[in-house]
Amino acid sequence: GSTWTKTSNNNQTNYISSFCSISPETILAGFNSEILRSVDSGKTWTTATSVGARVWSMAASPGNLVLAGTYGSGVYRSTDGGINWRSSSEGLGYGIIYSLLLASDGYIYAGGANGSISRSVDDGASWIKVADIPLPAWSLIDDGVGNIYAGSNSGVFRSTDQGKNWFPLGRPIGWGVYSLGIDKSRFLLAGMMGGGIFRSSS
Question: What per-residue string of b and e applies to 126-156 under the rule 16 or more CB within 10 Å gives b?
Fold first, then answer.
């Protein structure tokens, strides 16, 4: 990371909101209302599709399943590694999707700007709303042992029952937990909208 080279053209630089890696060579990027695709480890990019709304979040399985959450058009889904896409928002109930999680329990979770948490049991083909947390659901992450965490303006929340119920874990100093990470010891990392990174102590 000590040196950087621009690999997109001037029409692909306005707003890159998310990245998603399918393989070491194939990478997707959310750009305004388009999804860009690279098959040479990010050296060159082509437009895979336009979804008509800003792409906010992306997630991929080890196979060819890829999901994109948008600002206003719900979720888009690809089953061929990001080449072709179609709307996949049945049952979602809200169009602004800030976060997506392909969890270790085999389900997929979507977090909405209104605080809604939706779950899919069919690889993102359809959804059912399972809960609400204080808005918005900026980020979702799991620890691989049955716990799912969500970050919102009111702090961090945890679910131990596949998203049905959520319990507050507190809020680091700052305004809004914009992103979440987890280390090898399963301690949480919280990136704050007001600045700073915080690490949980339990």
Answer: ebebbbebebbbbbbbbeeeebbbbbbbbbb
Residue 163: CA atoms inside 13 Å, Cβ hemisphere, count? 30
Backbone Cα Rg of the chain = 17
Of 65, 153, 160, 57, which is closest to residue 105 (Cα–Cα)? 160
d(CA 91, CA 93): 6
Q: Note the pLDDT of residue 9.
A: 66
Q: Which two tokens stand for residue 27?
A: 């990478």
Burial of 169 (0-12, 13-18, 19+ CB in 10 A): middle
Query: What is the mean pLDDT of the segment spanning 153-161?
Result: 94
Tokens of 175: 């305004």
Inform me whether the pLDDT recorded for 13 exceeds 60: no
Classified as helix, coil or strand, 12 is helix
Q: Are 115 and 140 in contact (CB under 8 A)?
A: no
Looking at the chain, the whole-number percentage of residues with pLDDT higher than 90 is 58
- Please name the residues in contact with 160: beta carbons below 8 A apart, sequence gap of 6 or more: 146, 147, 148
* pTM for this predicted structure: 0.89
User: For the chain, what percent of residues have pLDDT higher than 70?
Assistant: 95
Give the residue with greater pLDDT, 189 vs 172.
189
